[in-house]
Design a protein that fits this description.
The chain has 452 residues and is an all-alpha fold. Helices cover 69% and strands 2% of the residues. It has 20 helices and four strands. Strands 1-2 form a two-stranded antiparallel ribbon. A two-stranded antiparallel ribbon has the order 3-4. The chain is globular, with a radius of gyration of 27 Å.
């Protein structure tokens, strides 16, 4: 490797340095083997896959096995950007032993957790692969990505925020509600990490930090537009970006809460338009990229499901202990079921709307999994007596359901029956209102006659 290549490689390794000493590479092979059960790298990989499939949060930094996977994915991205040459013997020898020990290729190059590292192993196992000619624009994009990776790995507030979204709890959601109660509460949570006497941690700070990181990441993707493969590897490698759909849902909730604040000179504020513009320029493009990426890839388990199976899993939970498409969706589903069981229909409605948003962002907007949730929303609206809102929900739902489900599908039959029930209820209400108007006219006429 040339001296310039050695400098670039040292630059890349420094990004993954220990938080206590950025010049000390992290992890070393010895530390990785110490982390693995009895020094077995394959078992270490199996352990992380099991935890991932069970919906556990895997830290952004500090776990030796995850650090190696992240480093390997970043190394492959750097090679694609002509930042380093991984075919040089000094890199090939170090990384091949670790990746072969884990046997990451068995997971496939499309695996959401192991795929980026598997792509590097495929390259290292190919003796014909050689570095391409220097691309200055891609090189600069890789440099920007490394700066972002360093910032993300050292951002404790971001880690706390994303961990709360990944594994939501009543406590974490209560913290957000407390901090969003007023501008003063929000400022206290941001500056002091507490609101009054209540400790709220760095959740609010993390929510704002994720916006900064997403702005930078979107700029990197835009610069990589001519290099599709490198762009996709960038998306696959940045694990924190995979939670963008949940981030979108959560920050939309923030925006709605802030919209209810009483502020001076409100007519001079344009925050709603600015937030919408930010979403469409930053968050939505990343969500679209992820949808296209995952649409072409199998799920992390390689499991294929029909729309009907996805619907049943959305309604009744995962059979056999398999995970939902997102851990957040599973938690929201559990909470909605508990709220319905206790008769808290308004709370259940709010939770189901959040679940529908999460499912619609993670999957295709008309995917089968979200149909059952939206049908439940309409049914709860009927129970609450809001027939017009139920009608609007069903009118937008039925075309998608008819495209995905057969005419005799039980769910579609129930949706049609619910629509008929709603329309009859609305018609009855109209008849009652008309009768009330007619009776009122008669009463006024009789009063006039009596007065005369």
């Amino acid at each position: 490797m040339t001296p310039q290549g050695e400098i670039a490689l040292a630059r890349l390794r420094s990004v993954f340095g220990r938080p206590t000493d950025l010049n000390e590479p992290w992890p070393t092979i010895g530390e990785l083997r110490a982390e693995a059960p009895e020094g077995d790298l394959r078992s270490a990989a199996d352990d992380r896959e099991s935890r991932y499939n069970n919906g556990e949060w895997l830290p952004l930094a500090g776990d030796p096995v995850m650090d190696v996977l992240d480093f390997a994915g970043t190394l492959e991205f750097a090679h694609m950007c002509t930042f380093v040459d991984v075919t040089a013997s000094s890199v090939r020898d170090d990384m091949s032993g670790i990746l072969r020990g884990m046997d990451v290729r068995r997971f496939g190059m499309h695996h959401r957790l192991f795929g980026p590292a598997a792509r590097l192993q495929v390259r290292l196992d190919s003796p014909q692969d050689r570095a391409t000619e220097l691309d200055l624009a891609a090189y600069a994009s890789c440099e920007r990505f490394l700066v972002l990776v360093r910032a993300v790995r050292r951002d404790a507030s971001l880690e706390e925020f994303l961990r709360d979204l990944h594994s939501p709890s009543p406590e974490s959601e209560s913290i957000a509600e407390t901090a969003l109660a007023s501008p003063r509460a929000f400022a206290e949570a941001l500056v002091r990490g507490r609101v009054g006497d209540r400790v709220v941690g760095r959740h609010i700070e993390g929510g704002l930090r994720v916006l900064e990181h997403l702005s930078v990441f979107t700029g990197i993707l835009q610069r990589l537009a001519p290099r599709t493969a490198a762009r996709e590897q960038c998306l696959r490698t940045a694990r924190w970006v995979h939670d963008v759909p949940a981030v979108h849902t959560e920050l939309d909730r923030w925006a709605r809460s802030m919209g209810a604040w009483s502020l001076p000179y409100a007519e001079t504020w344009d925050d709603e338009n600015r937030w919408t513009r930010f979403l469409h320029e930053t968050v939505v493009p990343i969500e679209d990229e992820l949808r296209r990426l995952w649409r072409n890839d199998p799920a992390s388990t390689g499991e294929q499901m029909s729309p009907e199976e996805r619907l049943m899993r959305a309604i009744f939970g995962q059979a056999g202990g398999r995970p939902d498409r997102t851990h957040r969706a599973r938690r929201l589903r559990q909470r909605a079921d508990q709220q319905k069981a206790t008769g808290s229909l308004i709370d259940a409605l709010s939770t189901l709307r959040a679940l529908a948003e999460s499912e619609g962002s993670t999957l295709e907007p008309d995917a089968g999994q979200v149909l059952g949730t939206r049908a439940e929303i309409a049914a709860i609206l009927v129970s609450l007596g809001d027939l017009e809102a139920a009608r609007r929900e069903l009118e937008s739902l039925i075309p998608a359901a008819e495209r995905l489900l057969g005419p005799l599908d039980p769910l579609l039959v129930q949706i049609h029956a619910l629509r008929d029930l709603v329309l009859r209820g609305i018609a009855r209400n109209v008849d009652v209102q008309r009768s009330d108007v007619e009776r009122s006219d008669v009463d006024r006429s009789m009063d006039d006659e009596v007065g005369a």
